[in-house]
Amino acid sequence: MARRGERRPRPAARAKSSPVTPAAIGIRSRAEVTRTRTVMAKIDPGAFRCPALAAQLADAWLDHAAKNALRRTSSQRAAVVQFCDFAGPRLAELGHDPASVRLESEDVDLTEVIYAWEQHLPTRYPAQSSMPYYLASALLNLIDHAARRNPRIPGKLRDRAGGATVLPKSGGQVLDEFTNRERLALKQQAMEDVRALEIRLAAGRELLKAGQDPRIAGWQSTANLLWAARHGILTTDNLRDNLPAHARYWPQELRDVRQSQSGYGAGRRGLVTGVSRLLLPREIDLHPFRVLLLLAMTDCTPEELHHLALDEIEFSAEGARIVQTKNRAERIRADFHLTDSPAAQDQVVEAAFFAGAGRWDVPGLLRRLVAVNDLTREVFDCEPWLFTAVEVVKQGSLEARFASLLYAGRRLTDWISAHDQLDVSHPHDARRLRKTAKTTRVAALGGTLSDLAGDDHHIQVFAGHYAHGTTAHTLAARAVTSAQRKVFDRLLAKPVLVMPDAEHRLGEQETADAMGVTAHQGQALRDGELDMGLTNCKEPMNSPHTGPGKPCHVAPAMCMVCPNAVVFVSQLPRLLLFADHVERMRRRLAPPVWQQHWGDKAKALAELFEECAEHIPAAREQIAAGGVDLDLPLGMRTEYDR
What we know:
Blueprint: E1 28-33, E2 38-43, H1 51-67, H2 74-93, H3 110-120, H4 131-147, H5 155-162, H6 180-208, H7 214-217, H8 222-230, H9 236-242, H10 252-257, H11 268-276, H12 283-296, H13 302-306, E3 313-315, E4 319-326, E5 331-338, H14 350-357, H15 362-372, H16 374-379, E6 388-392, E7 398-402, H17 412-417, H18 430-445, H19 449-453, H20 459-465, H21 470-492, E8 496-498, H22 500-503, H23 509-515, H24 519-526, E9 536-537, E10 542-543, E11 547-548, E12 565-568, H25 572-588, H26 591-611, H27 616-624, H28 634-640
Parallel strand pairs: 8-12
Antiparallel strand pairs: 1-2, 3-4, 4-5, 6-7, 9-12, 10-11
Helix pairs in contact: 1-2, 1-4, 2-4, 4-5, 6-12, 6-14, 12-15, 12-18, 25-26, 25-27
């Protein structure tokens, strides 16, 4: 316990710290992990004319990513970079010192700079691009994130950041599927290229057996260069030290194996490429597999297929089980693809396999793709991606890595353009292959939208992304046309009028064929066995109004608009009485109700009476004589007459 006088005076109260800490100095960076690699995303505030503003936005980028546990922030980083590139010159034009501008600056209206940047963004992208919308939204989100933690940011800027961008969200370019002709051409060419690749690799492996260490046996033999590629010593530096400087002094077999006979691929680098392609597949060689698999796997997106790893594929005698990861939906699911035959394929002989004897179903294609890269995995210590390729890097050596299929000369469009016989519409996008597979399934199955969506889509997703394709529209148009044709045929249907001189010949085959009935039906019509009250009927058990197999229950009300009806002249008196009944209903019922129930019958009766006008006076005389009665079912009066 302290004695009196030994207590130390309390220190003066510290001033409260500013809610805003000074911006850190230096490059801001964060590691972002994708399925294929880890990259360092960086923002250097010192690279802009407004470094203080850039530093604050970069700090907001890092804090926002950390607080929300974002795995990838490419849009946010790009938004900061592009806005700061624009804001520096813009602030200078407005008479401000860009280096001194911060989010808290009261004398600078940053909202106007943001509006100007939003108007500038669409000029940097195609008309259908959604990037301007996403970039502007990302910047506003970052400023709003900073404003929630910095009370000194002006209210006007705070309000602007809390609102939405003025840019519309573009629907993007609508991708249509490939036509059936294009689909078949792509499939056929891909199969030919797979066979050619397997034959080339088989020949290279056979030649490799004769190869020796070129450091001992010499560098002027293709077999020895294959040995060098197999053991990782084939580089342009080694070729420079051991081959003549100019290719014309090389042996003919080396000149033949080069990537090309002239230009960039004719030198040492082209020789390294040409030798390696005899043993190891390049990125351009993997497109045929990708095309065939996407056309066969309707439940797999290009993203899911492209990023498959070997440990996500499990082969069995019945097929292949694939664990698919969809990054956009952050969803993982497993699908099993059956082989076309239950025979196991694990014991396929390598020579026969590379000769093109492998299967073309999904499990077979996956096995073939794994097999063509077996040697790649032996030579290089590479990650186990299904799509692994070997390319010549800048240092002139060979390197195996994940096949991105994005660089010039290695894209799908480059593979298509390399085949002059392929006449395929643009754009050459792998997503069109998936849509083609989907619409092929649509054409095969038909059915309702829920049937076509299947198990891998909601109906809304299928309708928004796949049902707009040309094939689906064509099928929908056919369905609508067919339905309309049935309706119109029913609306335009009218009875067949049989004149008196033809009634007694209905039992003859020729007359029955002319009416579209059998001879037995013709006899029944002639003998009155098919009289329905007002008219006769060809098929009372196959009425278009009640369905097949059921007796017609709408006669005689619907007989005048039924294609099965057959009218004899002897039935005209009852039809005239029926026409009078229809006219009485016109006076009794409201016009819309009468038109709904009796309008089409009245029109059909008028056309019939016009066709047999010479028989109408005799029919009226029979009615006047009192020998004709009209008997209508009570149910008909209940249903139609009120």
